[in-house]
Amino acid sequence: MRIETIMRALADPTRLRIMRLLSAMELAVGELAQVLGQSQPRVSRHAGILCDAGLAERHREGSWVFLRASAGRERGNAVGEAVARLLAIAEREDADFAAACADDRRQLAAIRAARASSAEAYFARHAEEWDELRKLHSPDDLVERRLAEALDGEPLGEVLDIGTGTGRMAELFSGKAARVVALDKSLDMLRVARAKLQDLPAGRVELVQGDFAALPFAPHSFDTVLLHQVLHFAQDPTAALAEAARVARPGGRIAIVDFAAHQHEELRDRHAHARLGFTDGALDTLLSEAGYDPAPPIALDEGELVVKIWLGTRRGGPEDVTSRKAAR
């Protein structure tokens, strides 16, 4: 990107305020308009200029368009990092700019509160059904602790949390990973996750809408892939794990947390489970065919439903999966 374009993009007080806000958290264009006290079309124009300069980027979730700073996501983006440092210094040295930023942060607090309130309302609507399911298996904190222990031997690197739901896995591993990308198909769940994760440092976790059967990422993008209580929703687990393998780097790890095979048929109707858990043999085959070397599973049998952690290490690139299938 030419430096003249970047400097022109920054030659506006509103865009400077937007960049300072984005250094704190990702925001929808409508939320930015609310904070800045400007019309949404006007803020969209400013956002377009920042995106064209490579300082920010947009992504869509349903009818909402979110804006995030590029500097925190692109390692080696020296100009973007310099801009972020410059604006931090400017806020300390320029009283007028500091006053505008302070006012923006007060408005931003209202955005945070609204997100949290929306998440609480969603939980309230679904609390009874989730509590019903929780009673059947090992406590969540025990499952989380065993999963963290299982992944503790090597660096997590770039992590993909497929089916992030409330964002709990992204929250749990954000401090140990280089970056976490939290993906979910549901806009409602992404909004819950955004409320949970909004106090983490900007750039630590990226939220993305997408389907585990067609992940919107390039091959070899991640070092660690997580599927926490997700695979039982897959009509075709083979396709889901093939996609997970495609975006994994050679030598990368996968961790699947799900139920062992069971007979609770009511979970199909009450919780939309497509699969009533998995046997060790089935997961071993699924992982092997996807291109992973499976490790011995970990069982947590403190509840009526046994929770298992299946682990694997990526053997090679996604082309290996294609060639093995062609040879069968």
Write up what this structure looks like:
This protein is of the alpha/beta class and 328 residues long. It has helices at residues 3-10, 13-22, 29-36, 40-52, 78-93, 95-134, 140-150, 168-173, 187-197, 237-246, 266-271, 280-290, 318-327, and strands spanning 27-28, 56-61, 64-69, 158-162, 179-184, 205-209, 222-228, 248-259, 292-294, 298-300, 307-314. It folds into 2 domains: 3-110, Arc Repressor Mutant, subunit A (Orthogonal Bundle), CATH 1.10.10; 136-327, 3-Layer(aba) Sandwich (Rossmann fold), CATH 3.40.50. The chain contains 13 helices and 11 strands. Strand 7, helix 10 (237-246) and strand 8 (248-259) form a beta-alpha-beta unit. Helix 3 (29-36) crosses helix 4, helix 3 packs across helix 6 and helix 6 crosses helix 9 (187-197). The radius of gyration is 22 Å and the shape is elongated. Residues 317-328 have low confidence and may be disordered.
